[in-house]
Amino acid sequence: MSLKALVLSLVLSLVFGISHSSATETVIVNKAFNSREIKVRVGGLIRVDLEQLGAAGYAWAIKDLDKEHFEMVSVQTEGAPPAGDVTGAPVVKTWLFRATKKGATELRFLYYRPWEGEKNAVDSFILKVRIL
Amino acid sequence: MSRTREKILKSSISSIVVVFALLLTSALVYADSAELEQVRQAIKARGGRWHADETSVSNLSLQEKKMRLGGREYEDLSADYLSSPQLAPIPIVTAAPPTLDWRNVGGVSYVSPVKNQGSCGSCWAFAVTAAAESQMMIATSGLPIDLAEQILVSCPGGGGTCSGGSSSTASTYIRDVGLPLESCFIYTATNNSCSNACLNWQDNTYRIIGWHSARTAVDDIKNALYAYGPVIATMYVYNDFFSYRSGVYSYMTGSYVGAHAVLAVGYDDTLQAFIVKNSWGSGWGEAGYFMIAYSEVTGTSRFGYSTLAYDGYNDGSCVQANPTVTFSPSATQSVTPGTAITYTASVTNKDSSACSASTFNLSAALPSGWTASFGSSSLTINPGASASTTLLVTSPTTAAGGSYTITVKATESTAPTFTASVSVTVAIQTTPDTIPPVVSILSPTNGSTVGKKANLQAKASDNVGISKMELYIDGVLILVKNSSNITSSWNTANVSKGQHVIKAKAYDRAGNVGENSITVYK
Fold first, then answer.
1. What average pLDDT does range A29-42 have in this prediction?
2. Helix (H) / strand (E) containing B41
3. CATH 2.60.40.10, chain B: domain bounds
4. Of B187, B342, B349, B456, which sits 20 to 30 A from B179 (CA to CA)?
């Protein structure tokens, strides 16, 4: 790798790694998109929102992320503050991925209790992605 | 640039790129194993007293299972809830001992086996059912019992669904309706339908006498555990809690994943921790149990931010309780000497449903020289029902200015130990009131054009108090109300075009009159 290329990659990773332009395309999907295909351009973002019952011990987890085509930007859990003594309500776990290379691939998720392992998953979510 | 310097620079930049990429990746990617390692490191760094493990229960032998004896932070989530008034707080009855474990009290367990709620947000149903089961077991010297959580999830009024529920609502349901045995409606971890419960299940239910809310403090929760038995406690769950295997849990790392209800079954002052039964199956934690540090009551997980204790098993016999009394208006009334005030006193009979109706005698404690007369000085009320009567209170014409307290007491006629009282304040104003009420017309606005229908709204305020309000349109009285607010709907379909005057008048208790007028157009 040449010096110029290294400097350029450092600048690009700083610019695109920390923030992205507000004009960046973001495709937002949820469980209703299970087994469906979406199209996104290289550099575009995919936001995946999945409801999980954390109070039942369940969580969604990525199954074998295709790192050749995706870069994970962030993951966080959002939930409304409980009202009074209401418990057990679901919260939403949100991932943000950046498409990094053209091609047809998938994002796969499994829903299970971490201590029970993915072979005891009770649900799954697959999103087919065509990166243009 | 020399070849060596270029090499060093290349190497340095490569390292920066790699380190940056690693930082970015490690901060954002949470694979299971990485997450577990993060939890372990946090435990080590923060001096946590618990052990995190990834061993899957599916990898454990049955013998091993048997040998094992449970993004966004919400730091201020419970602030409002914590500061809100608690319902019927548990009285401190005695100093609790240094350790207590309802799984072993004199060799007897008063806690039912650990259950598994599955992928259904029904923790609240499992926590309250477990508390009820413990009450039955305490009443029967530990006789095992298994009640049906599914009733609470599926039946109207049960407290919630697989998407969450209320422990207090479910507790009231167990008090008033009760739960049948598990065999009547086997748990399915789905919302299911109440119609799938066994026939006439309401005829064979197990009930509790009542429930109380404990204050969110370590000593209050301990006291509730000692005085009442296992208690329902709510807490916030964070990611690291999934990895709990043993020890005394306290929050270490990870994001909020939900509000959870569990059953506290004991405590240990030596370990400074509560002993708690979870509903995630016996493969989690210490055979389904966990210990949580006292410090978490005010810590991140807010353990016990709602804590409910049950009064005991209702075996069908009558259990009497103190009634409740309310007084309306409850706000301080300002009057001149000799002025009469009419209050409404309401009494609620809190006896269990097996009791017959009770008669409550009413009495009023008054300042010297004051008089009071009840509309009815005794009320006969069925269990769970309420009744009201009026109380006319009059101060002497010679009363000095100042604040006076009036207390009303309701006492069960045949069992006077069951009693309740409530007090209100009356302010006596000795200087004659000559200040008229201030009247505001809120709607419509002065000078506006009204449509086919206009909403008329006015209010009044006064230093003594408003006795009535009147509303006029073009000098014609259209409405009178004994209130400081007055509203009416004005149909202008048959009203002539042009200017119209709306006037509101208010009278205070001293007879002073205030008014305000506006002009509107059609």
1. 96
2. helix B32-46
3. 438-521
4. B349
